[in-house]
Structures are given as C-alpha cells and as structure tokens.
Design goal:
The protein is an alpha+beta fold. It is built from ten helices and 22 strands. A five-stranded antiparallel beta sheet has the order 3-4-7-6-15. It has a five-stranded antiparallel beta sheet with strand order 5-16-17-14-13. Strands 8-9-10-11-12 form a five-stranded mixed beta sheet, covered by helices on one side. The longest helix is centred in the middle third of the chain and has 15 residues.
Amino acid sequence: MDSAGSVAASFVVGDRLKPDSSTAAVHLPRPSACPGLWRVVPAKDGGICRVKLPGGLLSSAQARAVVAAARTHASGVLELTNRSNLQLRGVREACQGALVQQLLDAGLGPRHADADDVRNVLINPAAGRDPAAHLDTRPLAEQLLALLQDVHAFRDLSPKFAVQLDGGEALAMLDHPHDIWLSALPGGTQLAFGLAGCPRGDALGVVESDRAVPLVEALLRLFLQLAGEHTRLRQLLAELPAQAYLARLPFDFQRATPSFTSPALEGVPLGVHAQAQPGRVMLLAGAPLGRLQAEQLQALADLADAEGCGELRLTPWQGVLLPDVPAARQAAVARAMQDIGLLLDARAPLARLLACSGSAGCAKAAADTKADALRLAERLGPNGPAQVHLCGCPRSCSAAHIAPYTLLARPGGRYDLYRREQGQAGFGRLLAASLDIDQAGERLAAGNPA
C-alpha cells in the first residue's frame, strides 16, 4: 500500500508530462477536464490544483501546508468546492511539480497515485458532532474510501462519480445529484439507499450498516459492467430503470423500505450550532463567493488550534465548520471568524450568493460573475431571495444543485434570470432575458422577481 508521502510527484504542461526531478517514478494523470492533485488544469488566471479532503477534514497543520504552497507556487487564492474540497488557483507552470510534492508531504494525497480521482465519498460536515445524527458516518466513510482506492477496477470511474453518506445530521446537504447515496435510519443499525439523486423519501432498499461496503462494491461493479459509454449512473438509469438495474445486482437487501424523511434546510446554516458533546459548540461560516485568501486560511488554522481541536471541516456550502469550541467562547470565536472576513449571518447578501470563477478566470464564462456578485450584494436587502446563483455558462460549475434563482450569463456580460420551479427542466422558468447586473438586482431586491 502506497503512503501519500511516497507517491511520485509529476505534473502536466499542455499535453506533456514533466516529472519532478526529485522523484524516481512518474504518475501520468488520466485525461479529464476536472482538476486533480497531479492534473493541474490551465485557466485564464493560471493552473488549478484540486485537493480532495476525506470527509472535508483539514488539520491545522495541513491548512498551513496549503497556505505555504499557495503563497510559494500559486496566486494565494483558494476555492472551497461544493464537494467539501479545496482548490489552489493561479498555479505557476514551472512550480507544479514542487507544489504537488509539498501537498503530498502534508498527507493530502491518495493511498495510490492513480486513485486520486475516485476519492469521492461525501459526508455531512458535522459528522460525529451533530446531536441529531443516528450514526457517526466517519468510520464507514473511511471504509468506502479505502474500497474506492484499493479496487483497481474502480479507478475507471469518472472523477465526478460520487457516493454520499448521510448519518441523519441536521447540518446536511442532501440535494446534490450523487450517483449512490446511503442514509442512516433511526437507531443507526440500518441504512436506506438510493441511486442517482432519487429523493430521500423514495429509497430503493435498506441494508444493515455493517453490509454497506459490500453493497456499494456490488453497485459499482454492476455499473462498470453495464455502463458502456456512460460515465454517470443517472445516464445509465435513463435507459435502464432503477428496479431493472437492481434486479441484476448479485446482492441481497431489504426491498420493502420504511417511510422516512430527512431534515430539510432553508438556505445555508451559518452560525453557532450545538454539539453532541456537552459544553461544546461548532461554528459554521461561509467563505464569500466560495473563496479564501491564503492569509484567511492561516488565521483559521491558528483559531482552530487556539479555540478548537486543531481541525477544520470544509462544507458543501463552500464554507468552513470549526468544531469543539467551548460554549463559553462562542461569542469571541464568532467575532474572530468575522474579523477574518467570513460570514456567520445567513441573512447577509453575500451569504445568499453563489458565483463561478467567471470570465476573470474561465475562458468559457460570458460574464465576470465574481465582480457582478459583489455589485449585486450591494443591491440586495433583507427581503431578497434565499439564494441566487450567478452562472458564467450552462455548465453550472459552482453549484451541483439548482438554486432558487439563477442568473445565467450570456454573451456581452448580460444575464437571463431563471426561477426554479417544480416540473421545469434546467434552471427552471425564464423570468427575464438580457438583464444587466443592476437591472437584475432591482428585480431580485424586490423579493418577488416574477
């Protein structure tokens, strides 16, 4: 079994692979448009390196290593993704090998060099801390991550293929369209499961918790057997109904599923939350428009050491959860996080906005969405919508779910305004076309843009 620190560092320049001269072996990352640890993808503002974090966990020491790498080899701009991962932007071409090695030395790599892409097991950021949870999902998540990395056949899965594990936490992001999901039932001894984003109330089966790993293995092997040209499970299920898929599964499970509901969150759950551990709280803060500067992450690492347990957890809301804060210190820690520049009030306009990298960083974007989002935030008051997504192109990179309102950029830097509505495909119903950002702000600030 390879240790992360012993994996050879290498990097891609255009379509050529150039090894780091300090390593004896070369890892060739497979072609993909998705950034990875070795696959530094070019963008208008430099290379993008994606660091996958198991369970979204980043120790304070690892955070400082990321800060050092971002300052030395990149622009110092960090992005928090909607899968609780981290991206370094502005990576300089000549520094890519050194940057990768620095991240590997911090323990931020995979078990095997060619398994980086498949480290896609998502859990809720408050796992092991949330008093509403039926099950601490972290041990099972570790087993699933080991399965994905150790079975060589699974390295053929798409870098976007993902498994989601929900322990019943109140701090839960459940509307991502993941390929396989498992959700703990009350008591924690059983998990309901479903495929390709089917609603949590429409589980396809139930399995004992200690049989979840072989179930996922069987589901993945069956997908690879039947996938053909399809890269995601939802594509296959568009041709082969889910029940017909399960009929081919060589695994016994309980098909009669109980009726259950999962907690539904309105907006991003910023602020202070109680922990299951007496006398402790956790603070969930948003990174404005999903970005941090290296100095902010450095300050967060210091805060985690001084006030918490020395760990940070990235969230699928593109923010940070700081756990294990003494309840008596919550007000002081909240002020410190706000002083860093983070958001703890869900009513703040910036806390209600999502934006992709935009034309300043992406050649496909038709508008400078980050700059426009800052302008839009100045216009939105307390009566504005719960969430607005500024999307530079139809790929919707910055949000895996459909936001209540979407501003989709069109050529010339203007936007079409959509509202999510049940039964409507894509971003929803078109409310207005070709608005500039000020016109869009006027409609959204009214509280009822229809």
